[in-house]
Amino acid sequence: PEVMATHKLEGEVMPGAVAAGALVCVPLSADEEAAASVVAWDLKQKRERWRHTTPEAVINPPLVQADSLVLVVTQSRDPLGKKATLCALGQEEGEPVWCWSSGMRALSAPCPVGERVWLVGDRNTLWSVGLKDGEVSGPVEIQDLARHIAAPAAAAGHLFIPARNGQLVALDLESRQVVWRYRHQSRSWSGTPIVVGATVITPFTDGHVIALDLDTGALRWQQRLHAQVPALAGDGDRVFAGYHRGVVALNAEDGKVLWEMPSERRVSAPPTVYGDMVLVAGHDHLVRGLRASDGEELWRWQGDRRFETPPLLTPEGLALLDAGDKLTVLRVPLSSLPPPEALTAKPWRVEATQLARAGKVREAAAMLEEKGDFFAAAELWAAAGEEDRAVPLCEQADTELGWQKAAAIYRRRDDVVAMAIALQRLAELRDDADAWDAARRAYQEAGMRKEAAACWREICRLRKYPFIRIEVEPDAGFVKGQYNTIRLKVTNEGYGVAYMLSARASGPFGGEDMQSQAIGNLAPGHSTELELALIPEVAGRVPLHLEVSFLLQRNGELHTVSAREIVPVASTAALSQPAAELRETYNAAFDVASREDFRRSSNDIMASYRRQLEDIGERLAAYREYQARYGMLAPPEIGLEIRRMEEEKVVLERKLDALLAETGSASG
Description:
By secondary structure, the chain is of the alpha+beta class.
């Protein structure tokens, strides 16, 4: 390997660095003279881009990069202090976008899933935080949940969390319910699980590596190595484990040892998989390139100090961080290869890629649009600065990526309504609670209450919450100084019990029943009637706020459904508003867009899923063909993309099967 550059970071490097394009973000530990910090080094410009310091706290690595953010967990220097914080730094400038002070002693590393990030806190709690705005949801309390410094793992709508007494807990992200638990004889985990296909694989401090069925938690295999296994990596066929004697490769199907690479000192950093090559950095100061199939050493490079952070793949070369403060960039002996976007069975994409790299981006975009390759065309039109042409193509693609891109463009343009509609379409395709929540918040921002309430109904369906429908029936119009009874018919159209139901009115009104007593609980499919007896204290047009409150779950968070309208209060009964008009005003305010009007038909959604599956099938075939042709010379992005598409294909097939079952259709 050729050394391209070395840089001094001015601080002791901690494990847990991340790469974001040509930017390497590194956590630096605190000492008596310097505070803990995160430094971002620009490999292309060969300079420090930004540095974020935490004077009163220490950093809990690793850092996590997600959605142009760098997520940093810190805790108080005082081990008994309760100042654990999750902070999201803008990737480009390093400025805090949001910070969550948890009020806990410590937090695990975060695990991003879609638009939210999950992490474990003190006292058996699991928390969810919005990536965009830091909105906190939780806690979800799980019995025997022990916080581990490493992050949980996520795949196929599940979260896999190392827990107390050697347990692994699988949580369904939509329902927030535990799906299964597995307890192992070892009492201590040594790292985050990894997911290989439909298998969850995780290491223990006693040297065990176990593989569990993703859906059921059933033990598929276990392998006992010589000592603690701190880190795992996988390439779909094999699992690579670093430990005190080097690196070992296990068969992902049965756990059998395929090969071992001995080392004089331990390997504590997870190996990095690059195509058919495994990159290993160890305490023996060596970085090696091994052939994944048989472990043969293809090349090596020796540094000055030990390595505790895995090699980081960047466009500028292989970034290496030693245990001191040195960042080294290597050009490793990997053949010059075409970019991954050109590797496809669609020949026009190869030509479009060549045009784009020659600076003819608009010509390339027009070619892709003509061929019906809508999302690829949209990406290029957006890159050329022509978002007006990109947006309709994103929508025409009708894929998750397409609607995501459209929503991002509308956000930049401050077109909140269009953004909300795009997020709704995205939620319809994904059909998970977090996606519906993003659409709900966008509709709320746009002031579209009925549509926001319809999104909330979908969230209730997925999380098994109650959904309350309210009909208002007044005795008469309002007259100053005279009682008027407002009856609220409350129906639970949702999927869980509404606990501690109560109603309240506020405004310039008197009366003993301005606020009702807690009515009790309301089961799904049941109705109850709440009465509010109000006396208007002034005449004219006055505000009247009606609300119904209840707990979403027993001992859960309080949820309120409300409507605020300006109502006429007459000075005499002869001038009062008709009761029918008052009823119509509030029923319209409490109304929710119907499911038929709001969502596309099941047939449309199924057709969209099938189109996506067909497209994924074509791309998978092309990528696999390329990987088979070039073997170890295939760029690492190919293997990563294949695994990503395989996971996406499994998720889509499950969604399609669930929709077919829901509609009673026969699978084709």
